[in-house]
Amino acid sequence: MLGMKVLIINCGSSSIKYELFEMTTESVLAEGVVERIGTDSAIIKLRVTGRDPLVQTSEILDHQVGLSRVLSLLMSREQGVIQSAEEVKAVGHRVVHGGEYFSEAVIIDPKVRQAIRQTIDLAPLHNLPNLLGIDAAQSQLPQAVHVAVFDTAFHQTMPTYAYMYPLPRVLYEKYKIRRYGFHGTSHKYVSQRAAAFLKRPIEELKIISCHIGNGASVAAIRQGKSVDTSMGMTPLEGLMMGTRCGDIDPAIVPYVMAREELTLAEVKSMMNKHSGLLGISGLSEDMRVIEEAAEQGHAQAKLALDMYVYKIRKVIGSYVAAMNGMDVLIFTAGVGENSSLVRERVCKNLTCFGIELDDGQNQLRRKEERRISTSSSKVEVLVIPTNEELMIAREAKKLVEKISL
Predict the structure, then answer these.
(1) Active-site positions?
(2) DSSP string of 51-108?
(3) How do the domains of the chain map onto residue ranges?
(4) Annotated binding site, which residues?
(5) Tens of pLDDT, residues 56-73
(6) What is the second-level CATH architecture of the domain 5-150?
(7) CB distance 326 to 206 below 8 Å
(8) Quick check: 216 and 333 in contact, CB under 8 A?
(9) Helix axes 388-404, 184-198, angle to 10 degrees
(10) What are the backbone dihedrals phi and psi of residue 138, each rounded to the nearest 5 degrees, phi first?
(11) Nearest one of 197, 194, 195, 181 to 315, comparing CA atoms
């Protein structure tokens, strides 16, 4: 289909991230963000390829107004890249939680909206803003096909023994308490890119994908399908992250609540916003700050880095066992793509699996797909920049083309 423009929207409680693609070439026409929605000092940012970035400040009280301002900019004579809203053939919406309802991207209809609403309790900070974005986009771009792409969908292929918790089964039957996993769009994208980079069928590969950013997760991918992942019912489970604690003894929660007289909201805030790298180092959740401080001898920063790397390495090892092997190890997202030190230290004690790192390739600072293992390494170690927005756009394009047949 010629000239297909797809708008990608990712809504937070007070923000809208957006990206407009021309899918015939998979090129980005424009991208930006609306921040501080609900205030009289909201900020709109727009970046168009080949032009100076635009920043505006104005009153934006809700997502409807925010998206209206975005569309006005995209269509404006001075700043725009399209002449009318009719050019937008599809809108891809990032939705964090799809529960057990969705194992793939879907066209949004009343039943899909209702299912997203029913999963709000599983992701209250995300799914409700996602619905606000869907409402705004459907009202302002009624001619477009609206597609929901779920962070959890890719992990719906996990076997029952991997996603069930060893709790009374009634809790699963009544409340769907189970492991769902997140970052699915990213894990799917980088695993497909890895297979293409290596020129090997993805069905032949056992891939371990490390999406390491402020939030972080590892996925075990066999034959192109997720068989396990480190995040669980919520994004709190799994690895030590920027501000999240990851796996801990659950008995710690009531113990600390009783000793510190914390409310449920306070202990949730502690685990989600004040733990991880920030909690251990006492300095920052930013890996760049942690690495610099550790190099200068800051003991707590060094401990935070040691813990962070150790926990990633442990999960990788467990997934080698889960898949009975590993052909490819991928590093992606903010830390995974940019921290040669983290990659080096993760791989250093994985030599038992035949991993040999090419120090020169690992040290290169390039925003491109590349191999960082040696030619004699038994495992291909790759850096693959993630592109969740492009993955969402591809899913939307696929569905538009399907209904156009």
Answers:
(1) 151
(2) S--EEEEEEE-SHHHHHHHHHHHHH-TTT-S-S-GGGEEEEEEEES--TTT-SS-EE-
(3) 5-150, 200-388
(4) 10, 17, 94, 211-215, 286-288, 334-338, 388
(5) 999 999 999 999 999 999
(6) 2-Layer Sandwich (3.30)
(7) yes
(8) yes
(9) 90
(10) -65, -35
(11) 181
* The domains spanning 5-150 and 200-388 adopt the same CATH topology: yes
CATH homologous superfamily for the domain 200-388: ATPase, nucleotide binding domain (3.30.420.40)
pTM of the model: 0.93
- C-alpha–C-alpha distance, residues 235 and 10, integer Å: 17
Question: Which residue ranges make up the annotated binding site for substrate?
Answer: 94
Helix (H, G, I), strand (E, B) or coil at 363: helix
Residue 363 neighbours by CB distance under 10 Å: 12
Q: For 373, which DSSP code?
A: B
SS3 annotation, 246-265: CCCCCCHHHHHHHHHCCCHH
In the annotated binding site for ATP, the residues are 17, 211-215, 286-288, 334-338
Q: What angle do CA 92, 5, 17 make, to 5 degrees?
A: 45
Please write the tens of the pLDDT for every residue from 116-139: 999 888 877 788 889 999 999 999
Token pair listed for 82: 């399209």
Residues making up the binding site for Mg(2+) = 10, 388
Reduced DSSP (H G I as helix, E B as strand, rest coil) percent helix, strand, coil of the chain, to 5: 45, 20, 35
Confidence of residue 404 (pLDDT cuts 50, 70, 90): confident
